[in-house]
Amino acid sequence: MNQSPRRYLILHKPYNVLTQFSDAEGRPTLADYIAIPGVYAAGRLDQDSEGLLLLTDDGEMLHRVTHPHWKLPKTYLAQVEGVPAEADLAQLRAGVLVKGERTAAAEVSLLPHPPDLPPRAVRAYHPTPWLRITLREGRKRQVRRMTAAVGFPCLRLVRVAIGPLSLGDLLPGQWRDLSAGERQALFQAVGLTEDAGPPVAARPRPSGRQGKRPPRR
User: Fold this and answer.
1) Residue 153 and residue 144: Cα distance in Å, rounded?
2) What tens digit of pLDDT does each residue of 50-81 get?
3) DSSP single-letter state for residue 11
4) Which of 35, 56, 142, 174 has the smallest number of CB atoms closer than 10 Å to its CB?
5) Residues forming the active site
6) Beta-sheet pairing, 97-98 with 165-166
7) What's the predicted TM-score (pTM) here?
8) d(CA 33, CA 6)
9) 109/137 same-domain check
10) CATH code, domain carrying 32
């Protein structure tokens, strides 16, 4: 009996959507945008964050993408209130105290121009520059807490890359399968070799909700 191939896809999670496939309160979920049975999100984005989600039915891939051992970089664009000075950026790069623990070193830069992203209204404070932040660790609402710790609250947060995968020109709510090249790069990034075997069962979540993961941002 032939087994269906594993699925690896990326979704541009819209703002105000939960990173899960069902919700008892009827809030928007991933099920409003994608209907592929058996896939889970590798990590999550908070309801008020946007951008790249990797979804797959490969349990080992889910484990490795989210496990701190592999230190898979995740890149975010953060719109902040006020203009950070170079000293503020240096603090973010070196690590700041969040909930009593210092964050790991990060790559942080101030963008010279606003990024080309689908528009979304935020609080009308000006100026509201954008930072590009790459992390190799994951804590709850980490980017927002980091920028707030140096005095620049985050107004909008968009994840644009996970390891070798980029959001590209996907619009909010759109998804696509990874290309062969993207799959190969992803497997190499987490120390796996791609094969044609059947899906590895994704590990069940205590809530029983497909796609739900522990908080990351």
Assistant:
1) 7
2) 999 999 999 999 999 999 888 899 999 999 99
3) E
4) 35
5) 46
6) unpaired
7) 0.86
8) 20
9) yes
10) 3.30.70.580
